[in-house]
Amino acid sequence: MHRLFQLLKKYDYLLVFLLLVIVSIVMMARSTYHQNSKLVVWASSIAGGWYQGLSSVGGYFGLKAENDRLAAENAQLRAQVAESYISYTDTTFEVNDTVYRQRYDYTEARVIKNSWSQQNNYVMINKGSRHGIKPDMAVISPEGIVGVVVATTTNFATIMPVLHSDSKNSVKVRRTNISGSLVWDGKDYRYAQVIDVPTTHQFYKNDTIITSGLANDFPEGILVGFVEGTETIKGSGFYKVKIRLATDFNKLDHVYIIDNKFRQEQEKLMEATEKD
After folding, report:
1. Distance CA 100, CA 127 (A)
2. What is the reported pTM?
3. CB distance 142 to 248 below 8 Å
4. CA–CA gap between residue 139 and residue 24 (Å, rounded)
5. 274 vs 139, higher pLDDT
6. What is the pLDDT of residues 33-59, one digit of tens each?
7. Distance, CA of 93 to CA of 77 (rounded, Å)
8. 129: which residues sit within 8 A by CB, 6+ positions away?
């Protein structure tokens, strides 16, 4: 108590000054509507700034949960787009009855291990066989193509990304519909190459490369990358097209595993066809 009195005595002039200022502000605010409104705006501005700061801090710590929620929602939305369905039209008695059956299903997953600077890179995700993940399933990111599942355990799976010397995927030029094969030369994770494209076709910088849909894994139209330039392979009559990959493998986080519900049927048909 004695210290309190000493402190008050030491700063008595300052405390009296602050008290007078407060009293003056209150009296001025009550004197006119204009001054009162200005005081309310000033106080609201300070309070708003404070709550905005608190909201920003809380929002930062809630980002992980929000990202997971959005990724799961995106997986559901991808499964509902038209490209994920097959259309059947049966004509009977001149009545067209069109039924859509879903062809592709999407499962969201998080990347827990990733490499991008080796000759043969791999990606590990936090979903496995108990989540319905199987080898040969296609994998994409929100930006574009990633790779194909090669192995699974109960709770995890590994993916061979396009950044692998053994990776080869069917792609095409969106503008011309010309097909080729996507490969990687093991040099820069930002770029890949499209081969098996005849030199009779013309390319332009920033032409869009997408998946062709000719294989049993990726749906048609998944973004792959953009043309950077072309190189003619001597004596072959084919281009090697350098493309800038749409997916940034250095920042890979959420991915979507694609289940082609007709894959087994397609493979059995091809086996029977090849035997014949």
Report:
1. 29
2. 0.65
3. no
4. 68
5. 139
6. 455 545 544 443 444 444 345 445 444
7. 36
8. 152, 153, 154, 157
pLDDT surpassing 90 at residue 179: yes
The Cα 136–Cα 108 span in angstroms is 16
Q: Residue type for 149, please?
A: V
Eight-class DSSP state of 121 = -
